[in-house]
């Protein structure tokens, strides 16, 4: 990273960078990190790093242990299930609303997202696939004026998001995700709320079927 840019990084900017690295698993669950190491990595002083660490700790993404150090938090399976439960039931209600009225420009946005998803499936770029998946679901909430609901869900589903990244990295369900996204678009376009509801239910419970495989592959990532 350019040293001049690094030195000007604020604690808020560092927080966002580190948060993204934790969420996309560049910083692995259980990894020991230090203020000194991060400040050297970004070429900045320890003060903004310390402040960023404090914010991440409050969000549950870092655990600080006296005499031991600071660690990226392990994935809590109870938190995963609670977030999945919340998201499933809220998003099923939201997608049914979308089938009643949905802006044409948002429908086009979903269709373009689907095309991009297929492209990155072929490239096997799981980080980009995760970003596209998030954009797809965010657009559904935006399409029926439920942006704040989406933002609220995002605040409580951090471990659920990390599980989804692992699922994609392990090449699980990528084809099925594409197929379900396509079916959700068709249900919205054809005003079929019951169909959309059923597909969304299957879509958001897939993580349960993949969890054992992910845990077996990465046992050190879990509480």
Notes on the structure:
This protein has helices at residues 3-7, 11-23, 35-42, 46-58, 77-100, 104-123, 126-143, 147-156, 158-169, 174-189, 193-217, and strands at residues 32-33, 62-65, 69-72. The protein is mainly alpha-helical and 223 residues long. It has 2 domains: 11-72, Arc Repressor Mutant, subunit A (Orthogonal Bundle), CATH 1.10.10.10; 77-218, Up-down Bundle (Four Helix Bundle (Hemerythrin (Met), subunit A)), CATH 1.20.120. A 3-stranded antiparallel β-sheet has the order 1-3-2. β2 and β3 (69-72) form a beta hairpin. α7 (126-143) crosses α9. The chain is elongated and about 60 Å long. The two termini are 33 Å apart. The model is unreliable at 1-6 (pLDDT under 50).
Features:
223 residues, mainly alpha, Arc Repressor Mutant, subunit A, Four Helix Bundle (Hemerythrin (Met), subunit A), 2 domains, three-stranded antiparallel β-sheet, 11 helices, 74% helix, 4% strand, elongated, disordered N terminus
